[in-house]
Amino acid sequence: MSNYETIITSVEDGIALIQLNRPRVLNAINRPMVTELLDAFEGFDRNDEVKAIVLTGNERAFAAGADIDEMKEDDSVSLELLNQFKEWDRLATIKKPIIGAVNGYCFGGGFELALCADILFAAENAQFGFPEIKLGVMPGAGGTVKLTKLMGQKKALEWLWLGDPMTAGEALQYGVINRVIAPELVLEEAKKYAKQVASRAPLSVRLIKETVYKSIDYSTYEGMQFERKNFYLLFSSQDQKEGMKAFVEKRPAEFKGK
Ligand code: CAA
């Protein structure tokens, strides 16, 4: 258990849980929450006991966006000086698997936070969207870029220009999320998946994550060179020796993450 004000965290069986906890404002993401999220994510990333991280909200909302009350008086100079997206950028440096479990509203900065999860499970009642256009702004924490990379330029523009919510079914159809699940099961299924990943060779999990994200920005050739280096790197691990020895000896491998 933790002493955070805007999130609740716990660890069970190697799986860390981070739950957004500002229910009165539908988990609107204020600046203290971003700082606390980073502290929790980076702490779990360093914690050897933790193999995967599950990120969730509550039944009504994953998060209904950045906190509008907090930013309504901001101007471009105050935002530049605040440099708040520096913390968001650090989210992309988390090495362990992040599984997102989304119920209810997932809008604006909340959708951007959800998109920081490597795998996304959503409840049938989840709604995703970037309503920023209705506030006279646009996404600022990667939403425009990530949505375009996930669903393609034409579909992304269609959604970003109107700012209307998409259903979980639509998000699945466009490749934005991984699975649609009954609302009461979404967190359980996310934890179950996290446990499955946690049972795999941890260094392989880590380097596959790194290589997949590099492949988004690299050319096919550059991506394959990067992949090869990581493939070679794994042959320096004890887990590679154990994994292949276990195969030959016809027994389950016991991976140590070394
Ligand atoms: N910021 C601050 N407060 C918020 C909020 C937000 N993003 N979203 C909801 N709330 C608050 C409401 O003001 C309300 O507070 P009060 O009870 O004190 O009035 C409380 O949460 C409950 O909300 P509603 O009464 O509006 O609930 P609803 O079920 O009728 O509607 C909703 C739900 C459709 C999600 C609606 O709350 C809404 O449209 N919220 C704003 C969504 C939005 O525009 N998000 C984008 C924010 S900008 C952004 O995220 C920028 C970025 O990229 C970094």
Structure description:
47% of the residues lie in helices and 16% in strands. With 258 residues, the chain is an alpha/beta fold. It has 2 domains: 7-198, Alpha-Beta Complex (2-enoyl-CoA Hydratase, Chain A, domain 1); 202-248, Lyase 2-enoyl-coa Hydratase, Chain  A, domain 2. A 6-stranded mixed β-sheet has the order 1-2-3-5-7-10, sandwiched between helices. It has a 4-stranded mixed β-sheet with strand order 4-6-8-9. Helix 10 (202-217) packs antiparallel against helix 11. The longest helix has 16 residues, at 31-46. The radius of gyration is 19 Å and the shape is globular. It starts with 6 loop residues before the first strand and ends in a 10-residue tail after the last helix.
Condensed summary:
With 258 residues, this protein is of the alpha/beta class. It has helices at residues 31-46, 68-71, 76-82, 85-91, 109-114, 143-151, 153-162, 168-173, 186-198, 202-217, 220-234, 238-248; strands at 7-12, 15-20, 52-56, 61-63, 98-102, 105-107, 119-123, 127-129, 166-167, 179-181.
List keywords for this structure.
alpha/beta, 2-enoyl-CoA Hydratase, Chain A, domain 1, 12 helices, 10 strands, globular, 258 residues, binds acetoacetyl-coenzyme A, four-stranded mixed sheet
Write the layout of secondary structure elements.
Blueprint: E1 7-12, E2 15-20, H1 31-46, E3 52-56, E4 61-63, H2 68-71, H3 76-82, H4 85-91, E5 98-102, E6 105-107, H5 109-114, E7 119-123, E8 127-129, H6 143-151, H7 153-162, E9 166-167, H8 168-173, E10 179-181, H9 186-198, H10 202-217, H11 220-234, H12 238-248
Parallel strand pairs: 2-3, 3-5, 4-6, 5-7, 6-8, 7-10
Antiparallel strand pairs: 1-2, 8-9
Helix pairs in contact: 1-4, 6-7, 10-11
Acetoacetyl-coenzyme A is lined by residues 25-26, 28, 64-69, 105, 107-109, 112, 131-132, 135, 139-141, 143.
